[in-house]
């Protein structure tokens, strides 16, 4: 059965009090048609509307993340969300052919939203849930950060002013939050940092409440512990940030 693609195309209403520097988005919703032999796929992501550098950078980054999540055939070139969904479906079909007794459906759910925006930067938070068999599925969050003026995606190292040691400061805040003595090994309470040495997570993003450091499941703790987050208020972290925020 063919998938159903639903796109709600509407512009965000611009009022007189709206900050004109904010980007406009439309929601793109994709849902697979229900059938007994189909994996479940649900996608709800923002699409930047203007055809300029920053909008293209955002849309490209979101598309590439979804392709990475759903690609189950590295021998085939995947260059769109549609073909990524097909790859996911084919992966499930191949499994069913090899192991017809396998009755558990695969599932993929991906949602995206703007977690922070001002005239200088914007962060998109993508949350995904994938189940491809086994005892449980896997939920993860990915932050995508962008320099709006340059129209480019930012790597984590590009977020910080190298004149200050943000890693040392983050470790101090992490130890306070997790009740780990400043003199004890970082893994003293059961964390699993490599070489017993604190490190920043793969995912760092701007949110309304502050800069968030997010460790996904298995990154520094067991699956049962779930994701570990540390949110530092901008009043405390501003000197460490390379791009100044307009709060």
Describe the protein's architecture and organization.
This protein has 247 residues and is α+β, with helices and mostly antiparallel strands. It has 2 domains: 4-154, Heat Shock Protein 90, CATH 3.30.565.40; 157-240, Alpha-Beta Complex (Actin, Chain A, domain 4), CATH 3.90.640. The chain contains 4 helices and 10 strands; from the N terminus they run βββααββββαβββα. The chain has helices spanning 53-70, 81-98, 166-177, 234-237, and strands at 4-7, 25-31, 40-48, 107-117, 121-131, 138-147, 152-154, 203-207, 210-215, 228-232. The strands form 2 sheets. Strands 1-2-3-4-5-6-7 form a 7-stranded mixed β-sheet, with helices on one face. The protein has a 3-stranded antiparallel β-sheet with strand order 8-9-10. Helix 1 (53-70) runs parallel beside helix 2 (81-98). The chain is flat, with a radius of gyration of 20 Å. The model is unreliable at 1-17 (pLDDT under 50).
């Amino acid at each position: 059965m063919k998938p159903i693609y639903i796109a709600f195309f509407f512009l965000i209403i611009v009022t007189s009090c709206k900050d004109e520097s904010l980007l406009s988005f439309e929601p793109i919703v994709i849902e697979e048609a229900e059938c007994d032999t189909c994996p479940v796929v649900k996608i709800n992501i923002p699409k930047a509307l203007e055809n300029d550098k920053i909008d293209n950078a955002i849309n490209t980054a979101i598309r590439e993340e979804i392709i990475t999540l759903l690609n189950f055939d590295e021998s085939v070139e995947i260059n769109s969300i549609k073909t990524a969904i097909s790859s996911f479906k084919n992966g499930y079909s191949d499994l069913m052919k090899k192991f017809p007794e396998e009755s558990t459906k695969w599932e993929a759910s991906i949602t995206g939203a703007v977690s922070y925006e001002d005239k200088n930067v914007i962060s998109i938070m993508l949350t995904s849930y994938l189940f491809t068999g086994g005892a449980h599925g896997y939920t993860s969050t990915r932050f995508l950060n962008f320099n709006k003026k340059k129209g480019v995606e930012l790597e984590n190292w590009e977020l910080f002013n190298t004149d200050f040691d943000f890693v040392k400061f983050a470790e101090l805040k992490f130890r306070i939050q997790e009740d780990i003595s400043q003199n004890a090994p970082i893994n003293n309470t059961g964390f699993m940092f490599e070489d017993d040495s604190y490190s920043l997570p793969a995912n760092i993003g701007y949110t309304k409440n502050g800069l968030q450091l997010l460790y996904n499941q298995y990154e520094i703790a067991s699956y049962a512990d779930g994701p570990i987050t540390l949110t530092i208020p901008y009043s405390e972290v501003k000197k460490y940030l390379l791009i100044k925020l307009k709060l």
